[in-house]
Amino acid sequence: MPPIASPHRIASRRRTGAAVLALLLLAACDGSPGSGAGNAAPAAPPPPQVTVATIRHQAAAVTTVLPGRTTAFQVAEVRPQVGGVLRERLFNEGEAVTAGQPLFRIDPAPYQAALETAQAAQARAEASAQSAELTVNRYRPLVRARAVSQQDLDLSEAALRQAQADVASAQAAVDTAQINLGYTVVNSPIAGRTGRSSITVGALVTASQAGPLVTVTQLDPIYVDMTQPSAALLRQRRDVAEGVLRRDSADRTTAVLILEDGTEYPQRGVIQFSEVIVDPGTGSVTLRAVFPNPDGLLMPGMFVRARVEEGTIDQALLVPQQAVTRTPRGEPMAYVVNAEDVVEQRVLKTSRAIGTNWLVTEGLAPGDRVVTEGVQRIRPGAKVAASEAPARPGQVASAD
What we know:
The protein has helices spanning 7-29, 109-144, 150-182, 230-242; strands at 49-54, 57-78, 84-89, 96-97, 102-106, 185-187, 192-194, 204-205, 214-229, 254-258, 269-274, 284-291, 303-320, 325-326, 332-337, 343-347, 349-354, 357-362, 369-373, 385-388. The protein contains 4 helices and 20 strands. The strands form 3 sheets. Strands 1, 14, 15, 16, 19 and 20 form a 6-stranded mixed beta sheet that branches. A 6-stranded antiparallel beta barrel has the order 2-9-12-11-10-13. Strands 6-5-3-8 form a 4-stranded antiparallel beta sheet, with no helix packed on it. 26% of the residues lie in helices and 34% in strands. The protein has 4 domains: 51-60 and 315-388, conserved putative lor/sdh protein from methanococcus maripaludis s2 fold; 62-73 and 218-314, Efflux pump adaptor protein, beta barrel domain (Elongation Factor Tu (Ef-tu), domain 3); 86-107 and 184-211, CATH 2.40.50.100; 109-183, Orthogonal Bundle (Helix Hairpins). 20% of the residues are buried. The chain is of the alpha+beta class.
């Protein structure tokens, strides 16, 4: 006969059975084999989130960046016009001078003496002319009285004309002497800044010397010579003629200068003209702009870049550059979300970059929603959840 279990052992067995039953119920709820919950299909993932930008017609300023170099507005190499010993330098090297300001003084003594000699010769010629005129005036009544022959009167009148010519020649000699005396003071022909002086006081200078005494450079305003491909110039003129590109003033095209350190020059310049000859070596045309330079920040020979305003496109379609990728064939393309929130792939034709956007000429229409963020998570034909990107600063859309 088996032993009878105690009440305490029976209660323990009951608690163990209850725990096993609870574990079996939990396994059935977790979808274990044989349970009904394990055969249900998993829930579909939500559509990927993308950010889109709606394309609108808008006015876009078209600019182009051209390389260039600064050139002095005027350069004057100051040379003496008379020879002599340099007695004085009347300026400090590197300072600003005005037009007509004395720069050097040449010994004037020889030219002063030459002026006085010419003046004496003029006085002598004038006295001879006065004597000849008195003789003619005396002979004329005597000829009528037949006291003097006509031949004597003719000779006296010829002598008078010769004396008058001598007076004119003497006057020209005086003028020449005065001019040469004035040339002993060497003046600046233009306003600008002086460079290094190649002549010291006491040196002998000549009117025909090759080297200048000093060079004066005018820096305000200053020229910037830029090069532009001839093909780009032709395209620009064609766009203006066809009305694609609008200019407010055909005669004044402005430019912004970008210095060598990447900063913008605060003063705006104006394009003066473009060359009529294409460089056969580079196929480019030279454009010249003039910029104010009151502080002398720009110096001749600096390498700069100029952002030239070509005009304005009134009905431009601009697409952010991050929204445009490339096909395996290298064509620009973008993803567009249609009205059913389904992704479509569009192959584009772009004309140029304007700021951080591409100017699109084919492939998009106003109202298209272009994907700007989340391109890596989508594919053509996929359904997406699109949210509009915030408007970019400075973007102004026009009515379609």
